[in-house]
Amino acid sequence: MGLGGGQETSSFVSDFLEKCGGYAVLDGGFATELERHGADLNDPLWSAKCLISSPHLVRRVHLDYLDAGANVIITASYQATIQGFEAKGFSKEEAKALLRKSVEIAIEAREIYYDKLQSRRPVLVAASVGSYGAYLADGSEYSGNYGDAVTVETLKDFHRERVKILANSGADLIAFETTPNKIEAKAYAELLEEEGIDIPAWFSFNSKDGINVVSGDSISECASIADSCKQVVAVGINCTAPRFIHGLVSSIRKVTSKPIVIYPNSGETYDGLTKQWVQSSGAVDEEFADIVIGKWREAGASLFGGCCRTTPNTIRAISRVLSNNKSSAINEDAQMSSKTEMKIFL
Ligand code: MET
Ligand SMILES: [Zn+2]
User: Fold this and answer.
1) Interval 253-278: pLDDT, tens
2) Is residue 1 assigned to a domain?
3) Number of neighbouring beta carbons within 10 Å of residue 57
4) Ligand 1 pocket test: which of 78, 174, 203, 270 has the largest number of ligand atoms within 8 Å of its C-beta?
């Protein structure tokens, strides 16, 4: 879809949200859902490994999220990098083709989904770009600590070619996800500007204290960088425990009027060293969708989904509660069935 036909970047998301009825539903955890389908992602490429070994599974997970009600599906390119594919022995051309393939599969899933339906619910394909730390696969995507040798220039050089390819792949927008620090946000903003990228983007950050992004940089400063970049159409938080979301949305709202995108993880913590998800101490089961419509919407968020360890059930519940809420008060049945389907740790 992109910005063809002279559409202004500034109205891209507001037009989309209007078509969706005011609020949009994103997909849920992608890589962790591939794992639930049996994929072994213990690999530096993580979910991008499936672009090589099992594209049918990538398509399956996209379709599952579309069936669950997603208005935005995010591609399997989170940890797909030219550098990462080259390290596996692929040529540069093959690496670029794999990046394009991540978008092609998502577009194909949307076509399959549309073919099944009478009406065409709005669905955008967001090309995922994970951080430099995600490529390093050493836990720094959750510490944001790249060391002094890594500068904005280093990060721009690292991301440049991938971003250019994804921008010309047919995707509707670029999702810069799990951004752990300020310098990477700055690198993305400069890159979009320098390269004249003409599809919109969202910047999404992760936090482990509800106050700052994971590096300790302030969420306000990070969100302000996103706010100043004209290609950025939404700002938000992903892969962060649900209990931190409300405060972060409030902080973001103070520095930008752009739409806010929220897709927390299940509330468990990822241990980068053991590569395991660990349940947080003192965690309680709660009902995710209630929180979405209650606190987060009031605080100003308008796009909602899930990140790691959330599933199509999470998205089905969010979708049901939001659509009930669009027309009338939340109906009790939806609340009850959401409760039984959700398992989120607060
Ligand atoms: C570590 S966050 C991962 C985000 C990515 N879109 C996924 O769900 O796999
Ligand atoms: Zn995640």
Assistant:
1) 999 999 999 999 988 877 877 878 88
2) no
3) 19
4) 78
SS3 of 285, please?
A: strand
ipTM above 0.95, yes or no: yes
- Protein residue whose Cα sits closest to atom 7 of ligand 1: 30
The string of pLDDT tens digits covering residues 288-334 is 676 676 789 999 999 999 999 999 999 998 998 888 766 443 344 44
308 annotated binding-site participant: yes
Residue 222 assigned to a binding site:
no
Task: Give the chain's end-to-end CA distance (angstroms, integer).
Answer: 37
CA of 281 to the centre of ligand 1 (A): 23
The span from the CA of 240 to the CA of 269, in Å, is 9
Structure tokens at 199: 């599809």
CA of 105 to the centre of ligand 1 (A): 17
Q: Give the least confident one: 9-18, 63-72, 108-117, 175-184.
A: 9-18
Residues 6+ apart with CB under 8 A from 91: none
Query: What is the spatial distance between Cα 93 and Cα 135, in angstroms, rounded to a whole number?
Result: 19
Any domain includes 48:
yes
Q: Is 29 in the pocket of ligand 1 (CB under 6 A)?
A: yes
How far is residue 188 from each of residues 100, 116, 260, 291, 296, measured CA to CA in Å?
A: 20, 37, 18, 31, 26
Domain assignment of residue 230, yes or no = yes
Ligand having the closest approach to the CA of 75: 1
Q: Where are the alpha helices (DSSP H) in the chain?
A: 9-20, 31-36, 49-53, 55-68, 82-87, 92-116, 132-136, 152-167, 182-194, 219-228, 242-255, 288-291, 297-299, 312-327, 332-341
How many domains does one find in the chain?
Answer: 1
- Domain span holding position 203: 9-345
Is 178's C-beta closer than 6 angstroms to any atom of ligand 1? Answer: yes
Q: What's the pTM?
A: 0.91
Residue 20 among known ligand-binding residues: no
pLDDT at residue 136 tops 50: yes
In a domain, 3, yes or no: no
The CATH number for 18's domain is 3.20.20.330
Average confidence (pLDDT) over 68-97: 98
